[in-house]
Each structure stands twice: as structure tokens, then as C-alpha cells.
């Protein structure tokens, strides 16, 4: 089960809190958004690398 | 009138801020998907997040998120981070879900370093980080900004995915 560690700096109490269903859903949505962003960045980088690797045309 | 500060206790000033730097208790980052530091006082203007050999279970990156009385906010960040590696090309990324620390995408990556988060005005915070990843012989750096809807009261260290922490320790310092 997913959990997080919570440290209350006011009281000094540290606790382990299991995710609620709602928190898990928010977390999963954020994961999906990040994966999409990273995929787009990787695709852009691949296109840039391919363009950089293409030799410039030379005159006959 | 003389004022003597003997270091035996904290000193407060008119706004209620504690003079000097306050440390939270360090946390082993060996389990869980996030570590939250809550109950931060309203007078805080600078937070230092310290990473000591922190790593994740898979290929995700680190995220640091801010929160207020309404909870942790995970949108509307402007953030980027990049890693300059010894033997490979530089890599990096951006995030709107938090302040990104791009540790890399291979297994065994880790981060040792510092992120500083400062209140620039109102409820707008600026971050900057510098860290090293011994697994890739690399240096990590970047920055970001985030405007909260209210006064900051909490901070979360987590990842861009469902990874769990599996090594190291994390702590924060805060000051007014």
C-alpha cells in the first residue's frame, strides 16, 4: 500500500500515512501527465538529434 | 541596554520569527512515495531541502512541491533541471507538477545536494538546486517558480512517478 512519511515540524511528531483513494487517484493523474511530458521531450530531442546528424548538402 | 544570547534557547523577534536557522528532524528516505514536512510557521522566507544519497526505486525524477492550508499544490509550477554527465550527453527536463530535480533515468541513480526555496514576494516562491549523482559522475542543477494560493505551511519531497524512496536521508532547514 502506498504511504508517505509526514513530519510535523511544529510538534516534532513523525508518522506514516497510508494514501486515501482520492490521493492515490491524484497521484496517478500526475504520473500520467509527467510521462506524457517526458515522452514529448524525448521525441523533440530525437528529432533534434536526427537533424543535427544529417550532413549538410554539398554542391556537385 | 545589552542583549545576551547564550544559545540555550531560540530567540524570537517582533514578527514571531525565530532568529537563526531551525532544523527539522532528518528522515531516512528508504520507504514511501513522499516525505512531507508540515506545520511550517507563517514567517518562513527560506527553506533549504537537503538530499543525502537519496535514490528512487525505478527511473523517476525527484519533485519538491509546496503547500498551504489547502494542501499540497501539484500544478502551475515553472521548473527545469538538467544533468551534466562525465561521459554522456547532458539530459534534463521540465515539470509543472513541482520543482524538478533531474537525477537521470537509469537504475542506481542518486542525489546528494541542496535545493533552496525563497519567498520572493507575496506567495511566490523561487527555487534553485545543485546536486551530484555519483552513479553517473554528474552534476545536477536547475530552478523554478511557484505562486501558492495562500501562505506556505508545508513542503513535500516526492517523485515524478510511483517510485518509492530506497536509500539515503532527507531533511530541511527553515528561517525567517
Report on this structure:
The complex is a heterodimer of chains A (60) and B (176). With 60 residues, chain A is of the alpha+beta class. Chain A has one helix and two strands. Chain A starts with a strand and ends in a 7-residue tail after the last helix. By secondary structure, chain B is mainly β. Chain B contains no helices and 16 strands. Chain B has strands spanning 11-12, 18-19, 22-23, 27-28, 34-38, 46-56, 62-68, 71-72, 78-85, 91-95, 99-101, 111-121, 124-133, 138-147, 154-159, 165-175. The relative contact order of chain B is 0.33. The chains are: A alpha+beta (60), B mainly beta (176). The interface between A and B is medium-sized, with 25 and 28 residues.
Give a quick summary of the entry.
Chain A is α+β, with helices and mostly antiparallel strands.
The structure class of chain A reads alpha+beta
Oligomer: heterodimer
Taken from the alpha-carbon principal axes, the silhouette of chain A is elongated
Total helices of chain B: the number is 0
What gap, in angstroms, lies between the N and C termini of chain B? 25 Å
What is the total tally of β strands of chain A? Answer: 2
Largest interface summary: A-B, 25 and 28 residues
Separate helix tally of chain A = 1
- Helices and strands of chain B, in N-to-C order? EEEEEEEEEEEEEEEE
Helix content of chain A: 55-70%
Rg value of chain A:
23 Å
Content of β-strand of chain A: 15-25%
Bin the helical content of chain B. under 10%
Give the topology string of chain A: H per helix, E per strand: EEH
Distance between the termini of chain A: 67 Å
Q: pLDDT below 50 for ≥5 consecutive residues: which ranges of chain A?
A: none
Spans where pLDDT lies below 50 across 5 or more residues of chain B: none
Amino acid at each position: 500500500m502506498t504511504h508517505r512519511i509526514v513530519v510535523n515540524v511544529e510538534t516534532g511528531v513523525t508518522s506514516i500515512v497510508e494514501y486515501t483513494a482520492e490521493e492515490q487517484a491524484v497521484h496517478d493523474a500526475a504520473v500520467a501527465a509527467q510521462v506524457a511530458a517526458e515522452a514529448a521531450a524525448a521525441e523533440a530531442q530525437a528529432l533534434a538529434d536526427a537533424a543535427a546528424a544529417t550532413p549538410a548538402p554539398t554542391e556537385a | 541596554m545589552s542583549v545576551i544570547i547564550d544559545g540555550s534557547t531560540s530567540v524570537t523577534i517582533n514578527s514571531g520569527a525565530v532568529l537563526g536557522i531551525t532544523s527539522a528532524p532528518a528522515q531516512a528516505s528508504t520507504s514511501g512515495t513522499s516525505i512531507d514536512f508540515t506545520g511550517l510557521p507563517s514567517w518562513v522566507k527560506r527553506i533549504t531541502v537537503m538530499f543525502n544519497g537519496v535514490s528512487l526505486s525505478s527511473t523517476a525524477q525527484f519533485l519538491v512541491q509546496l503547500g498551504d492550508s489547502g494542501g499540497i499544490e501539484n500544478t502551475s509550477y515553472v521548473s527545469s533541471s538538467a544533468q551534466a554527465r562525465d561521459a554522456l550527453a547532458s539530459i534534463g527536463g521540465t515539470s509543472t507538477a513541482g520543482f524538478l530535480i533531474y537525477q537521470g533515468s537509469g537504475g542506481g541513480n542518486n542525489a546528494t545536494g541542496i535545493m533552496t526555496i525563497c519567498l520572493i514576494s507575496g506567495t511566490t516562491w523561487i527555487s534553485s538546486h545543485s546536486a551530484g549523482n555519483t552513479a553517473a559522475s554528474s552534476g545536477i542543477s536547475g530552478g523554478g517558480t511557484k505562486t501558492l494560493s495562500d501562505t506556505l505551511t508545508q513542503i513535500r519531497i516526492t517523485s515524478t512517478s510511483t517510485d518509492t524512496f530506497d536509500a539515503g536521508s532527507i531533511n530541511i532547514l527553515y528561517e525567517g
